[in-house]
Amino acid sequence: MREILLYTGCTTPVRLPAYEAATIAVLEKLGVKAREMTDVTCCGAQYIESISPTAFAAMSGRILAVAEKEGLDILAICGACSGSLKITKHELDHDKQLRDEINDILADEGLKYTGKVRVRHLLQVLAEDIGYETIERAIVKPYTGLKVSAHYGCHVTRPFDIVQVDDPENPTILDRLAEIAGAEAVDYAGKTRCCGGPMLAMDESLATKIGQEKVNNIADVGADVILTACEFCDIQLTQVQFDDNFDASRRIPVMPITQFLGPALGIDEERLGFSLNRIDPQEVLAALQGGQA
Amino acid sequence: MNETVYTPTSSFAEELAAIPGGEAVNKCIQCGICTASCAVARYSDEYRPRQLIQKILLGEREEVLKSTLPWLCMTCRLCEERCQEGVSPAEIFHAVRILAAREGHVPQSFRHVVSALIRDGWLLNDSYTDFEEDDREDLGLNTELGWNNEFLKRIKKLIPLEESE
Lengths: 293, 165
Hints:
Chain A is α/β, with parallel strands linked by helices. In chain A, 48% of the residues lie in helices and 10% in strands. In chain A, strand 7, helix 12 (231-239) and strand 8 form a beta-alpha-beta unit.
């Protein structure tokens, strides 16, 4: 079985462990063993990134170097982490002076960045490394009569020149995966807009308005579930629906793509953590052919 | 015919242009597609990326560096994807933040997170309680997260962080 190193990022293990578990289970089903990295730090996204380019490159660079020592590519399941690691890799590959500086820091621990490992966001592993055909063949229990809307995550698909995931103006990977699993993918206004998550640190009320607009646009097209490819987006699009200003009758379950694919691939529900979802996904699961797993 | 295109610029714009990411500031033609694309601008009365870049081009150095506005960019890069002139407001405001941080202007919320990061090596150490451990155990996940909390302390000197502004 192919192996890849899972860099979970800070948020998933604490706030959305079902995403982590579902990702491991789904990839295993599809022939990829995701082994979790340890002895690494936060990637540095947003906070360190904003105030110290060198410290940021050192943090993400160290993660890349740890993977290099293991000789395995990195799987990132968070938009911010995948962005940080890819941007840092790009910088270290193109700026020899920065690379030397980072390698001086890493040398104390016997680590070195040479650029051997790739950083793969989950969507790349699913669509490119595993491939749609393999996933299609593995679907044992497709959804029927279910409408889904995809939210891709800004840092997953932009900047395209560096991250190389999907078409940033018209992304399709999540939509195609949903259709392979038997669902109908439905477009909506502002599909490539942000969930508002990165605004939480500075202005929570503004962040909430941005997220709510997105969910309302999705509710307007009658989607039964929102699919995500980043835990930060997933959590944000969920929590804005519990705000006082949001009409509770319009609540839509939010699911990371691997949690959504899991039951269609015949994976035991206990490994997918549906009971932890804040918005009950019961109606989504009821759309599985033959009923719930 | 004079083919020189007039581009307003300032010593502040040049200063930012010298920081990686800030180079494109002088290419801005002030068309406003960034503001039109911006999810933050839709809901904020103050945040207008075009206007902020205009202030940079006009040399309003102190005002821009002391403002919290450059910290409101979500780096979603929708504007950058749409800009026809190759300008990335996210990168420009990133350069502004780096310069602002050097001069001690870092918003309180960022400072808190950075301090916690230096202490723990990751963001959610304080939130990881027995409840989350139980959830992980139920899902068959490891409960020892194994974060490295030494490295950040070792590179702390690279991080400008004033305790008060």
